[in-house]
Amino acid sequence: RSMTLTHTKNTDWADSSGDEPRWDGLNKLGKKIITKIDEIDMVIDVSHASDKTVEDVLEVTSMPIMASHSCARTLCNIPRNIPDNLIREIAERKGYIGVNFFPGFLKKNINEQVMKNLEKYKEWYQGKIEGNEDDPDILNQAEMEFYMKIVEGNDKVDLNAVIDHIVHIAEIGGVECVGLGSDFDGIPSTPTDLTDVSCYPALINGLSNRGFKDKEIRGIMGLNLFNFLKNFDK
Question: Which Pfam families does its entry note (predicted)?
Answer without folding.
Answer: Peptidase_M19
